[in-house]
Write a structure and sequence with these properties.
The protein is mainly alpha-helical and 213 residues long. The chain contains 13 helices and three strands; from the N terminus they run H-H-H-H-H-H-H-H-H-E-H-H-E-E-H-H. The chain has a three-stranded antiparallel beta sheet with strand order 1-3-2. A hairpin with a 3-residue loop joins strand 2 (171-174) and strand 3. The longest helix has 15 residues, at 126-140.
Amino acid sequence: RAPYSSSNIAALESFAKSQISGDQPFYARANRALLKQYKTTGTGMENKDMITNVMLLAMLEFPAGDYMSFTYLIPEGVRRDEAFSKVSRCHQLLTACNFADFWGELATTQEALKDEDAKKLIASSTDKLRREILAILALTYRSVPTSTVLAAFGGGAASADDISKLSSPVVKSVTGDSVTFAPSADNTKRSRTYQENIGFSSIASMITKVSAE
């Protein structure tokens, strides 16, 4: 039985808040039901902060495709809200594999959010997002420079040890020079070597494949 009532806005909001606080895992069907209720009742604008938080939850589930399936339920006025626009921009950067710019945008998004639990959710999602970035790279490459992975992690104080500490199943080994990914049907079916002049945008099409899995 679903842990929410699809016709009770208060119950759906309570369940969404429990996801934002980390007490419950992401539940796409419940969140979609809440957005539909706002759309049906015409109460989207007065609940723009909740809508933004729901979209934040979906964005942080990258590379799952729930974010895009939610967008048609968002009122135009909410789309123009600063915090919502920043969450949307984060999603665009992720799906374009523009990881280096993503982290900076995520930091400004965190500042723009009004909900303290939402701010904390962003702070606690770093490792999860980094694992997904590794999974995206592993779809295409058997090995990439460690410096390239660290740049995708947002640079700063990130180190090779931070990659190892993630204990990602797609990573075979990490050295100061390179990250080698475990062989898979995707990264071994053709010979592809990472080249510095090939940007992350060249593997953005792989997001579609991951989202469908």
